[in-house]
Design goal:
Helix content is 70%, strand content 10%. The longest helix has 69 residues, at 89-157. A hairpin with a 2-residue loop joins strand 3 and strand 4 (269-279). By secondary structure, it is α+β, with helices and mostly antiparallel strands.
Length: 391
């Protein structure tokens, strides 16, 4: 317990001392500025008008005819007609439900788009935090490597060290400097990617630690995800809409009616009255219904398949996270036992170990600590992916 406490204090000391900006603040900014999310909102709005446009009958039809002196009876003939076609009420009721379901599906699709963008941003932020942690330890390594190199140059002058030892110190310093440049380059690349996600606007990225997330039990996780994952909800709405579309198609095979008013004037005689018409589809009804029925069955099966895929995917991710968590705790224990560079430096000064042994142990320590940082990052990346549906 004491070892873990010391390790945690050491890790906090290695973190950068800057103001901690929450993930939520950064993600909220990206959500507001991202062009893809903004375009997606406009698309949902346009589709909403499109689906609702056909909920009501088409406008009335107006016809006017003018026939001057074109019969055996001298005089002008005029014809005026206005009519309105309409389906039975069940068609409009079912079509309205279908339209609302399709609009809901588009809204869930937009939510999927938003979650993909925010999950990408969160992944980049986790990567950035990882690089900042590496920067913090790299700065300490660089100062230490520089001190060791200078010390051995002085020892070489006084004859207390040989050229091989100096070269070892110099190579170590070069390697640490090379890593620092690589980390800086990768950090700048991540900032540019986040800037793009933020609509081209600069971001004040000052997060210095991963966003904590509690791993709930598997059964609760499955229930929560299956009831709120927008991919599943979108597919469910598609299946419901397809089932309603089958009813709409059946309604379209019922007679279509029209009601209108006609006025006809021939010379000085006028005729007017009510028109009533009916249109009965005969040729395409069977195939149209069969097509709609097959589509409905397809979406039902696709929904079941997607649900099973989500369950299997969640179980796999959950097991992976448990493994990463165990590995993370193991590395924390190991780091509490492995000698740090300060202790190794003391041993070197006291002549307890040689220069070769010193750098061998140092590289071993660096390797373990770098692996620890990688496992820590992988753990939080996996956790973010598991809870992507919450974004």
């Amino acid at each position: 317990m004491k070892t873990k406490t010391i390790l945690i204090i050491s890790l906090l000391f290695l973190s950068t001392n800057i103001f901690s900006q929450s993930f939520d603040e950064i993600l909220k900014t990206i959500e507001e500025n991202n062009k893809d999310i903004q375009a997606g909102k406009k698309y949902v709005e346009s589709k909403s008008y499109e689906y609702r446009r056909t909920n009501l009958p088409e406008g009335p039809k107006v016809t006017y005819g003018y026939f001057p002196n074109n019969s055996s009876v001298p005089g002008t003939k005029e014809v005026f007609e206005v009519s309105q076609s309409f389906q039975l009420p069940c068609y409009y009721r079912n079509h309205k439900t279908y339209a609302n379901l399709m609009i809901n599906r588009e809204e869930y699709n937009h939510l999927i788009l938003k979650q993909n963008v925010l999950n990408e941003a969160k992944t980049l932020l986790n990567e950035y935090i990882y690089l900042m942690k590496k920067t913090a330890i790299n700065d300490k390594r660089l100062n230490f490597a520089d001190d060791v190199h200078n010390a051995y140059l002085i020892r070489l002058e006084v004859g207390d060290a040989n050229a091989l030892e100096v070269n070892k110190a110099k190579l170590h310093l070069m390697q640490v400097k090379k890593e620092k440049k690589l980390i800086k380059s990768e950090s700048l690349a991540i900032k540019e990617k986040l800037k793009k996600l933020n609509g081209g606007n600069d971001l004040d990225i000052s997060v210095d630690n991963y966003q904590e997330g509690q791993l709930i039990d598997l059964d609760s996780l499955l229930f929560e995800r299956l009831s709120s994952d927008p991919e599943l909800l979108s597919q469910q709405k598609a299946a419901e809409a397809s089932s309603r579309q089958l009813k709409v198609t059946k309604n379209l095979q019922l007679p279509e009616f029209s009601l209108g008013y006609t006025r006809e004037t021939v010379v000085d005689e006028k005729f007017k009255g009510i028109m009533f018409g009916v249109s009965i589809p005969l040729w395409s009804s069977k195939r149209a219904i069969q097509k709609a029925k097959i589509e409905s069955e397809y979406f039902e099966l696709s929904t079941i398949s997607l649900n099973e895929t989500k369950v299997a995917e969640t179980r796999i991710m959950y097991d992976q996270i448990l493994t990463l968590k165990e590995n993370l705790e193991s590395y924390q224990t190991i780091l509490g036992l492995v000698n740090s560079q300060e202790l190794l430096n003391i041993s070197l000064k006291n002549g307890e170990i040689s220069v070769i042994e010193f750098f061998t142990e140092m590289f071993y320590y660096y390797e373990i600590y770098d692996e620890y940082l990688t496992v820590e990052k992988d753990y939080y990346q996996a956790l973010a992916g598991l809870y992507k549906y919450r974004l």
